[in-house]
Sequence to fold (704 residues):
Amino acid sequence: MKKALKILKKDSTKPGRLNTMNNPLLQPFDLAPFSKIKNEHYLPAIKELIATTKDQISAIADSQKEPTFNNTVEALENTGLQLDRVSSIFFNLNGAETNDEIQKIAQEVSPLLTDFNNDLLLNEALFKRVKAVYDSKESLDLNIEQNTLLEKQYKGFARNGANLSEEKKAILRKIDATLATLKLTFGENVLAETNAYELRLTSEGDLAGLPDDAKTAAAQIAKEKGEEGWMITLDYPSYIPFMKYAKNRELRKKLSLAFGARAFQKNENSNEKNVLKLANLRHERAVLLGYASHAHFVLEERMAKTPKKVTSFLTDLLTKAKPAAQKEFDELVAFAKELDQIDQLEKWDSAYYAEKLKQKRYNLDDEKLKPYFKLENVIDGVFAVAHKLFGLSFVPDTNIEVYHEDVKTYQVTDSEDELVAIFYADFHPRSGKRGGAWMTSYKPQQKTEMLDKLGVKNDRPHISIVCNFTKPVIEDGKETKPSLLTFNEVTTLFHEFGHALHGMLANTTYKSLSGTSVFWDFVELPSQVLENWCYEKETLGLFATHYETAELIPMELVAKIKESATFHEGMQTLRQISFGMLDMAWHGSDPSEITHVKAFEDASFAATKLFPDTPETCMSTAFSHIFQGGYSAGYYSYKWAEVLDADAFAYFKEEGIFNKNVANKFKAFVLSQGGTQDPMDLYVKFRGKKPDPEALLKRAGLIN
Ligand SMILES: [Zn+2]
Fold:
């Protein structure tokens, strides 16, 4: 409120006043004022709010007062509140309800915000004050959360080179600029190679085995390219079904080799040199900042902490999962031999025979399950789970403004009827919404001083989940078939809802440590752990009834769902471990001696290899996760998060999946704590001990 008044006052002295006064994004608001926002409001509002926030920051940086935690660190934390809220509305809508105009605005807004953040991290006067507080932290008597905030702020500057000499700073900037370009080039090369390949098929027999929708899609691609017949590309939606279902082994081989050779051919799109350059520059950057390797730099801000820890985590998992993986592999070999007299099982046979074996074993398909998973029932189910575990109630509130009529809105209250959060749920696909499913927030949770300064107000968060589930069928304005979810969509809903609980139950002082603002390898614990409830009889009994007959899902189907969920888990685990190890090999030590990308990769894969190698393919040259995206020295976190969620759920299983005591502890030490403390400390407080990988191996049926 105070800040908003300041904005109005400031604006009143400006020539553009009328315009600004009419901009709803520059007025104080609690719920996002969707009905009032027009596209033309975003850019002026964000520019204005950046300027206001810069003023706030300058006031802190240029202060003549002795730097204290309160006048520097906490003050900095409290700058830009409205800027954050407006940017989150903008970027949330750019994901969920975008159009050409919004995308154009995004191209203007994004660099403004990047520059703003860079300026902040390069502000030397500000860093000097933060550092002064940081250097005296022992004598400040800060609580854990304050300490974490100080650490996070200081590290933000230091990891960006604030402590370096001018000369070294210049080198760092140069490395950063080169790295940014290299990553871009890496991605462009993979994309170019993906797009350059097409498998043209002119005889329908070549598509034997493919489901009808995959055939239709293949015909569609050919048509779009002005060709007769069918076409398969290296894009996942085209590539994956072909590898899984196509009978023709030679064609599978051709496609698989083309996929594996992306950016590894002697042409202008080769990423071999880029991989070496990226690894070396990352190492150089880390050393400049005082770390032993890029992985040391990255893992400093992860639960795993050190490369040594990650490596022993992966090696330990490998030792335990390898026998199960080998057994599954041998079974698959025997199955392929029996079915089609395959003498040597190759990479391009793996998905095909695995799918066949899975069908033989479980005969479970989506169509059988979908009638038990009507969307409304599943929503009731996930709300019932939240009620049983955490006493939450979800009360629909249609007075809350939405950005699209499909969005559902709720007031979330606790057992004392206190408001916990506002919850938005946006379930169905439409043009303007990107694919996939995600959780996001419109307003962070934080504790702010009351206007009368006599107490603290706990600002409750506004949380949203966005999904792309099948729409109900509507004819003549009447719903003729409801939205029926696949089991995969059911677990997706529980997953995103788990993230949402992390946001909704947040109870911290500072917004930058609140909710899902936690270390990367900890953030998937609440979401993944919640998926476990989907496989339990007790949970399915709450909601999985047939949409026409109201019959409860048959228990033999539940048993099959559970069994098939861990099908080939050993081989899957081995595959994830191999990628994690390759990532650590590239980033865990000095790469300057590496000359051959493929040879280096082969050495790293030696311990996890099941299928014969193909010399014409290479993983690293198209490993976008680690060379283009943000997963460098972070690929292990997929398995890490699974270990956490399996171990956490094992605790629930021991005490009862709706046990109040365990749920309370999970809320008190995990869901409400955000990133206020080291995640391992939080986990141990919840669980009573460190996570044990055996829980994952047991759940996966890899050990007894
Ligand atoms: Zn997630």
